[in-house]
Write a structure and sequence with these properties.
Pfam families: Asp_aminotransf. InterPro entries: AspAT_Ic, PyrdxlP-dep_Trfase, PyrdxlP-dep_Trfase_major, PyrdxlP-dep_Trfase_small. Keywords: DNA-binding. It is a single chain. The protein has helices at 9-28, 42-46, 78-88, 102-116, 141-149, 166-173, 197-205, 236-242, 272-282, 291-301, 304-333, 359-368, 400-429; strands spanning 33-34, 95-97, 132-137, 153-158, 178-183, 214-218, 249-254, 266-269, 339-341, 350-354, 371-372, 390-393. The protein is α/β, with parallel strands linked by helices. The chain has two domains: 4-44 and 308-429, Alpha-Beta Complex (Aspartate Aminotransferase, domain 1), CATH 3.90.1150; 61-301, Aspartate Aminotransferase, domain 2, CATH 3.40.640.10. The strands form three sheets. It has a seven-stranded mixed beta sheet, with helices on both faces. The protein is globular, with a radius of gyration of 23 Å. Bound molecules: 4'-deoxy-4'-aminopyridoxal-5'-phosphate (PMP).
Length: 430
């Protein structure tokens, strides 16, 4: 196909008129579609309905013979930590089970770091002139919101397809003000990238200016595959220990997109030293977590095979939605040069890189046509995408029918915005 840039001005005018007519026809359908947030669909939550009857009347005794109804058990049930070691890739005795939200654990660890420092800190991070985090871009908007909330300056780092650009990372971490870095190592939100072995090795081995630098290793999509391939990522705890930096990573995961997004379980893991530090802080916060929910998860998921089978059921529900988006983008945009997009093998998002300068316009066009999209810029620190090109599509929550319709509309918006931008450039140059 001839790209938009290679079209004659007459062809361009024709294409634009066709795209405008297709867009107007779509808009006239008066649809109301939402592709904004990576939430599980009701059918995915239904997969865990059996949990609501667990652990069941009279079932409240843990493997160690303790009463799960009472206070205590601060680190989490050992049988659950053994199960979660498959999820978070850490030994069970270095795992702590928290409440339902891993984001809350990230929040708390950052607040504790700011107020008290972490193992290896000379002083609390808030006493530094201006703590800085490296932020691979595109990234997760709520990570960036946490940094903004606490006055942590963010430095964007480009992604390469194998994880963050390590030459850039190594140059920035030499600065002692850089205290942390966000990492979503597998099926990253939103690029779907998987950190390569070499990326993990370099993150573990790099020299940091700050002795108390931390990788915030948010493995939110560790078992969330869209294909039969499970794409193991190199063990960050082991890699850091081997490189002589055992305390470098803070690990996070949750069952929000495994069991129930509003009633799952979140986990933290780290070196023995980091785990002791975490437990010393959380002991001031609570006299013990919800162990009935922990027991419920053990009874329901049972073991690594049970977890895997459950994730296969999720995949059967959501893989067709991702395929529907790919099909519409391919049909309308392939060869036009109007956009590039990811083909993730797991996770919850597709990232579209539209023509520079058009992402805001695509979101506006989509809104007018009844499709809610994540605001342009949301995947960059401070909400600023200097290229105005990145769009994050979240196909899991709407029904397959709605995703198919929304994808059609979005592809039309991207095409129309690109054609109009090209016409604008030519008119200015004429
Ligand atoms: N981390 C990432 C990368 C996410 O995409 C999400 C959810 N969209 C979360 C964390 C939130 O996790 P939780 O539900 O455990 O707070």
């Amino acid at each position: 196909m001839t790209t938009i840039a290679d079209r004659s001005t007459a062809e361009l005018a024709d294409l634009r008129a066709q795209a405008r007519a297709a867009y107007d026809a779509f808009k006239a359908r008066g649809l109301k579609l939402d592709m904004t947030r990576g939430k599980p669909a009701p059918e995915q939550l239904d997969l865990a309905t059996g949990m609501l009857a667990l652990p069941g009347n009279g079932d409240y005794t843990t493997a160690a013979g303790e009463d799960a109804r009472n206070y205590g058990g601060q680190q989490g049930l050992p049988e659950l930590r053994a199960l979660f070691s498959h999820l978070i890739d850490a030994p069970a005795d270095q795992i702590v089970v928290g409440g339902n939200s891993s984001l809350a654990l990230m929040h708390d660890t950052i607040v504790w770091a700011l107020l008290k420092g972490v193992p290896g800190s000379e002083r609390p991070w808030s006493k530094e002139e201006e703590p800085v985090f490296l932020c691979p871009v595109p990234g997760y908007d709520r990570h960036f919101a946490l940094c903004e909330e606490f006055g942590i300056r963010m430095i964007p780092v480009p992604m390469t397809g194998q994880g963050p650009d390590m030459d850039v990372v190594e140059a920035f971490v030499a600065n002692p003000a850089v205290k942390g870095m966000w990492c979503v190592p597998k099926y990253a939100n939103p690029s779907g990238e998987i950190f390569s072995d070499e990326t993990v090795r370099r993150l573990a081995a790099m020299k940091t200016g700050a002795p108390d630098f931390r990788l915030f290793w948010d493995n939110a999509y560790a078992v969330h595959h869209l294909t039969p391939d499970r794409h193991p990522v190199r063990d960050i705890l082991a890699a850091c220990a081997e490189a002589g930096h055992p305390d470098r990573p803070f690990l996070y995961a949750s069952t929000s997109k495994i069991t129930l997004a509003g009633a799952g379980l979140a986990v933290f893991a780290g070196s023995p030293e980091n785990t002791r530090w975490f437990l010393a802080r959380s002991a001031k916060q609570t006299i013990g977590p919800d162990k009935l929910n922990q027991l419920r998860h053990v009874r329901f998921l049972r073991d690594a095979a049970g977890l895997q089978a459950h994730m296969d059921a999720h995949r059967a529900l959501i893989a067709p939605k991702f395929a529907a988006v790919q099909e519409a983008l391919e049909r309308h945009l392939a060869g036009t040069g109007a956009a590039r997009w990811t083909r993730p093998e797991g996770g919850y998002f597709i990232t579209v890189e539209a023509r520079a300068g058009t992402a805001t316009e695509v979101v506006r066009l989509a809104k007018e046509a009844g499709i809610a999209l994540t605001p342009a810029g949301a995947t960059s620190p401070y909400g600023r995408d200097p290229q105005d090109s990145v769009l994050r599509l979240a196909p899991t929550f709407p029904s397959l029918g709605d995703v198919t319709k929304a994808a059609e509309g979005i592809a039309l918006c991207i095409l129309l915005a690109s054609l109009e931008a090209e016409q604008g450039v030519r008119a200015r140059n004429a």
